[in-house]
Amino acid sequence: MKINNIFKGAAIMAAGALLTGCNSDYLELAPETSISNNEITANVENARKAILGICMTMQFQYSGTTLNNFLCNGESNIDMFFGESTGQDLISPICIGRQFPKDFTMYNNWNNQSSFPNYIPWEYYYQIIAQANLILDGIDGAEGTESEVNFVKAQALTFRAHAYNKLMEFYGPRWQDSNNGGKYALVMRLHSGTEPVPLSTVNDTYKQIYEDLDTAIECYKNSEESREYKWEPDLSVAYGTYARAALNKQDWSKAKEMAKNARADYRVMDNDTYHAGFFKDNDDFMWRTGDEPSDIYYYSWGSLWAANGAYTSVWNWGGNSIDLSLYNQLDPKDTRRKCFLTPDKIDELSLSSTLKKANITRESFWEPELVGVGSACIDLAAGPTKADKNKPNQKWGLYNVALRICEYYVNNVFTGNKADILNEGNSGIINYYAEGATGVELLSKGVYGSFPQKAPFGAQFKFMANVPYGNSCYPFMRASEMCLIEAEAAYMDNDRDRALACLKEINDQRIEGYSFNSKDESLLNEIKLCRRIELWGEGRQWNDLKRWNQSINRVKWDKETKTGNWIPDVAGTIAPSAANGWRFTIPLSETQYNTAINISLLN
Q1: Cα dihedral 380, 381, 382, 387 sign
Q2: What is the pLDDT of residues 121-136, one digit of tens each?
Q3: Stated pTM of the model
Q4: For residue 433, which of 386, 504, 370, 381 has the smallest C-alpha distance?
Q5: Alpha-carbon dihedral sign for residues 59, 63, 65, 70
């Protein structure tokens, strides 16, 4: 995304916004230039630049704001910090042990008006809404062709609908807990400005989301324009946003229809694409970040979350891990199992004769002598790497086996270009595995391996990134997600044949010899399981568990039971009723300055 300084000013957006976290300044979007708000919609050229400014907001490296303190780079970090680490399927050492210990993983912070999980999503999404409103307030009178005006208007409406739907996920009640939509949830701002606005009901919010998207879809269809970049919204993204909102509202027929429409021009990725690192565009990605190195630097999504991310290496926390309870539910032939450092991989390794003497088994992953139970992750690189003749009974070698699991993935499963993920000047492969002329374990002739840092139990290989900044095409929306929405909605709409067909569209590729044919409740459970593993690490998990009304169950690492891989401090169960039904509380940055809010209506 190459944007000049005039564009940044005209777009108002990321460079000019002040997000303080303690007052209403996050709604004050006056630009730091002489360009007025009226000029933004004086013509479609300026309005088009403002649209690209909202795109920039979704992948911008914030600085000098509270979002900077939160390591924010826009939508992808919202997905990871709030959509994934708050759940049970992804274990994030960054969230557990870095700047924000346990803020995201422990539910008592979700309704604390001053906590990170409380105010960051509110400020971020209302910033997008405010930006969209500035465009919508004047776009109908903008100079330009009807086709051009329609397209810009449609994009602004899509952004606003997306933001309100995401706010509903975090701050709204589950549909089944909403008194048929009668409960209060959000502040409905439909025009620019910072005047006090009262709370709106769940029904009012979804009605507005639907109206915005109905109008957007009509405008897209009445326009001959098309998006220039895939990080812009278009007709497919409007359909996809509609599908997400309808799924949250339990409007099954609408969700089914819109999900099918959304993915019409895309296809579920094949297995080679799935194992290519998720850092390059493909036919499954409907909406994604840009990947220009000049756009974002050390706060790129990949620098924090990818397997070769720079920060997870520098901070020595290790990368993200999969919850072992989820992993163990997967079919042994599921290719998605290959993406994680787990005990069963021992069976696939070709171990040296020396290492075989260490007698490492699956149970060794729970041996206190071999594993480090720290404050952020379960570290498989903590134990001895060789036998000690003075300690003949000492166990050793799990470190070495973990190395070989990493090597096996990179050399036998990863289908991308290794040169894209190698850090210049060294032979590091990923943040918890490196090859070189020297190291701990001889992997092959002249090639040694070592861990520069911790090796988390369940460490992921699904997501890689381009070095050195960690740029990648992180997906905001995929055809595979739409296929799974269609499957779930079809099941709930009693369209079982269609639900099964959608499930098989994905699992027939992922699982060799897949033969599931049931149409009873086990079909819904199979759809949910497929969704959890197919979209793992893509920001959907916490809201999925919330709308399914299911508990979070994190099974701790325990040498006796040998069943889990969560550190004990954040393990346990979070019931669906916790934190007012998993609702983030409206933050002080709103309630202290918006005098029209009656906070008691949220009880």
Answers
A1: positive
A2: 999 999 999 999 999 9
A3: 0.94
A4: 381
A5: positive
Cα 188 to Cα 5: distance, rounded to the nearest angstrom: 32
324 DSSP assignment: H
- Using alpha carbons, list the distances in angstroms from residue 394 to 390, 441, 559: 9, 18, 17
Instruction: State the Cα torsion 15-20-24-27 to the nearest 10°.
Output: 20
Taking the CA atoms of 134, 140, 142 and 145 in sequence, report the sign of the dihedral they define.
positive
Instruction: Tell me the HSE value of 598 on the side-chain side, using a 13 A CA sphere.
Output: 8
pLDDT at 293: 63
Contact between 400 and 441 (Cβ < 8 Å): yes
DSSP single-letter state for residue 338: G
Q: Are 545 and 88 in contact (CB under 8 A)?
A: yes
Question: How far apart, in Å, do the first and last CA atoms of the chain sit?
Answer: 43
In which element (H, E) is residue 321 found?
A: strand 321-322
CB 272 within 8 A of CB 415: yes
How many residues are present in the chain? Answer: 603
Confidence at 303, pLDDT banded by 50, 70, 90: confident
Q: Comparing C-alpha atoms, which of 425, 433, 418, 469 is closest to residue 319?
A: 433
Instruction: Give the H/E segment covering residue 505.
Output: helix 496-510
- Element of type H or E holding 6: helix 5-10
Name the phi and psi angles at 333, rounded to 5.
Answer: -95, 5
H helix or E strand, kind and range, residue 187: strand 184-187
pLDDT in tens, 265-284: 999 999 999 999 999 999 99
Q: Which DSSP symbol is given to 80?
A: I
3-state secondary structure 551-597: CEEECECCCCCCCCCECHHHCEEECCCHHHHHCCCCCHHHHCCCCCC
pLDDT at 412: 93
pLDDT at 30 over 50: no
In 10 A of CB 372, how many CB atoms?
A: 15
Give the Cα separation of 61 and 299 in Å (integer): 6
More confident residue, 199 or 376: 199
